[in-house]
Amino acid sequence: MAVKLTKLIVLLVTSIPIFLPLSSPSTTYTTLNQGSSLSSPGDVLVSSPSRVFTAGFYPVGDNAYCLSIWFTRARAVVWMANRDHPVNGKATKLSLLHSGNLVLQDAGLLPVWTSNTAASTAAVALRLLDSGDLVLGSKENSSHVIWRSFDSPTNTLLPGQPLTVNTKLTSSTSPTNHSSGFYKLYFDNDNVLRLLFSGSDLSSVFWPAPWKASWESGRSTYNNSKTAVLDRRGGFSSSDDFKFKTSDFGAGPRRRMTLDADGVLRVYSWRRKWEVTWQLPVPPCSVNGVCGVNSLCTYSTYSSAGLGRSCACLPWHRAKNVGDWSEGCVPDFDRIPRCDSADVFLRISHTEFYGYDIGFDQNKTLEECESICLSYCDCRGFQYKFDWGAGVYNCFPKTLLFNGLQSTGFDSPFYLRLPPSSSSWSETKPLPLQLQCNNSVVELERVYTRENKYGLLRSLAWSAGVLGAVEVVCVLVFLYKTRACGEKLRDQSFIQVATGFTRFTYDDLKRASRSFSEEIGRGGSGVVYKGVLADDRVAAIKRLNEASQGGGEEEFLAEISLIGRLNHANLIQCWGYCAQGRHRLLVYEYLRNGSLAENLASNKLDRAKQFEIALGTAKGLAYLHDECLEWVLHCDVKPHNILLDDNYKPKVADFGLSKQLKRSDRVENLDMSLIRGTRGYMAPEWVYNLPITAKVDVYSYGVVVLEMVTGKSPKEIDFDLVDEDTSSSSVSDGIEECDGLKNLVRVALQCAQEKSDARPSMREVVHMLLTH
Ligand SMILES: *[C@@H]1O[C@H](CO)[C@@H](O)[C@H](O)[C@H]1NC(C)=O
Ligand SMILES: *[C@@H]1O[C@H](CO)[C@@H](O)[C@H](O)[C@H]1NC(C)=O
Ligand SMILES: *[C@@H]1O[C@H](CO)[C@@H](O)[C@H](O)[C@H]1NC(C)=O
Ligand SMILES: *[C@@H]1O[C@H](CO)[C@@H](O)[C@H](O)[C@H]1NC(C)=O
Ligand SMILES: *[C@@H]1O[C@H](CO)[C@@H](O)[C@H](O)[C@H]1NC(C)=O
Ligand SMILES: *[C@@H]1O[C@H](CO)[C@@H](O)[C@H](O)[C@H]1NC(C)=O
């Protein structure tokens, strides 16, 4: 093939061909002239003079190639001509014809792809510019261009490459399969830049949030120029007013903006490897279609694909293609459409399906809503949602179950319509959601070896004495020993920047906090300062002291990427971090109403607020504990770590600094000096060296709630009077003014049981609080 190439008289404008090692029969060009061709997979065209980009045949499978442009060193493909029609490696040819047409041919057959161009009188040549643009244009006049790859992007925009009304980005099918996938970034008719999921049966826009007006998302519909561009410094601006800057804003690294196969738009910067320096701040499950139809998405920090979510079929459904969740699930029963008025409904709590409503019926009882759904043959179930404004329940029957999300953040249940024969299902059976990862769960031992005769008080005294109770935050992340649920994540470059998570420089934070002048809190792990960020957001900046910093930067980033991914209304949000030299800082949202501890001290909370705080805190902890593939134990639940926002909505704080257990470590081997809670709130397991499970947080939660409702500190609460049969305990007898409160106390007492097995899970606590 090399022989054939040399026969073509290749006229090189800027340099002579640079031959690769002789063993490889390939040629490197900087210009392709009329009448010449690239004809073996090894022949490439490089950008001149820097050789940053290479164009040629990129292997996409066994003996399958696509005409592509990629970063020479970083091996990231930025453009493909024939992504959906790869060509054979043999006899494949890209020719620049004398007519001025650029043609890709597969084994002598018809052209697979052409540029559809014709040269005018002037001679044309194909050149790859340093911007990454492959340009077909006049040899004499470089501004005379007849075709350029920048005008037909695939899934990537390079700095300086505009996205226009005529172009769109289309994701790949998967990180390894480059064919056209399901997501598109484009300018819509109303001049707004949007992300669309376009599956085989369904398509829907998911960004900006479709339930909001454009202006509510900060978008303008007035400028019809429809252009968006990422500049060289990492600033992106679109004519609809959408703008952002990458976290490493400034001249420097090579960048690319890619619509990834998971529907998330990201900017990557090259620093010996690709790092995510910005990504579209949409929660992982709000990307439409990720789990397909009849399926539920849950947030899961260490999901198998490292995407911050996992998918599972609805009960009585099975996955169509386990390798590709976007195909969704199909029912295991055959009668569809089902028009049987004997159909039953299965309640699935904390679940919402978005869109595809048949109608909307206000103020309906559950029975009314069921019969509305039964009256439509194609009703697959309904959302039953309480409208806090109107104080009534609303009914949303649905024809299609798409965009399903299960999260402890949702109060409203979904009712799934099933054939009568399936009535044996009940909610107490675990959903497949949990089953999905059961093979990977390492069950922690729960045997309670030593009975404690002296009751809880004794153990509390012990905990104070033995541990000295330093206020050290401790979050234990027990990574389950599993192939499916973890390991891979670490090599994903985007682990380092989670959704909406910013990397700050030390100077940024020093400036924001006016040289760390206003201290607002202090704990074993560090001091918290108030600060105002460059974008005027008020933040709580936690400066970790050296003792609580584990290893190097990598380790720190791995730990905090977890915090950044946790996203729940009842967890304090972490906006970013700084890891520079010896400095380790975390930036959190700042809540003005202080901690529960301060509010308890000043006696400002009425019963309704107390209930909301108990419920919200339970939801936050349930989210930490329950998200499928791992446990995040807080280990230091106490009133100081429950912050209140302007509406007294609680947010659990300080679930941040984790001590991640390596796979080989067993819980028993934990160095006890690392495990410190706060006296009074600590579960007996700590003292007796029993296996630590999520139930330690449940215990602390119970004590906090009791403290809140009784107004007594943990040391004053008379646990000795707490009976096993908690409903008749003296604590609850003391407070009988309302049923809700009684229920709250009953639940709290159950949480504070000495035996960990007797305590409910946080998810059960949420359920118990909501159903009374
Ligand atoms: C080069 O091409 C551009 C665009 O076609 C044209 O406007 C310009 O006049 C040409 N310059 C010369 C010197 O021919
Ligand atoms: C890539 O995905 C496309 C579309 O789903 C499929 O037809 C094709 O077979 C896949 N290619 C490989 C190599 O898996
Ligand atoms: C419309 O957007 C373009 C590109 O961002 C900008 O240059 C132009 O000034 C805008 N026009 C108006 C009227 O704002
Ligand atoms: C809801 O419906 C019930 C019974 O139909 C009615 O008594 C009640 O007033 C309604 N409530 C509202 C807020 O419309
Ligand atoms: C989950 O566990 C059950 C019972 O232990 C088992 O039958 C089932 O196959 C497991 N599921 C998976 C996905 O391994
Ligand atoms: C707490 O929030 C309420 C309601 O927004 C406000 O009136 C009150 O002043 C706040 N308390 C503090 C201490 O800021």
Question: How is this structure best described in words?
Answer:
This protein is α+β, with helices and mostly antiparallel strands and 772 residues long. It folds into 5 domains: 125 residues, Orthogonal Prism (Agglutinin, subunit A); 114 residues, no CATH class; 131 residues, Hepatocyte Growth Factor (3-Layer(bba) Sandwich); 88 residues, Phosphorylase Kinase, domain 1; 176 residues, Transferase(Phosphotransferase) domain 1 (Transferase(Phosphotransferase), domain 1, Orthogonal Bundle), CATH 1.10.510.10. Helix content is 16%, strand content 28%. The chain has 13 helices and 47 strands. Strands 1, 2, 5, 6, 7, 8 and 9 form a 7-stranded mixed β-sheet that branches. It has a 6-stranded mixed β-sheet with strand order 38-42-43-41-40-39, with helices on both faces. α8 packs antiparallel against α13 and α10 packs antiparallel against α12. The longest helix is centred in the C-terminal third of the chain and has 20 residues. The protein is globular and about 95 Å long. The N terminus is likely disordered. The site of one 2-acetamido-2-deoxy-beta-D-glucopyranose (NAG) has 3 residues, from loops. One 2-acetamido-2-deoxy-beta-D-glucopyranose binds next to loops.
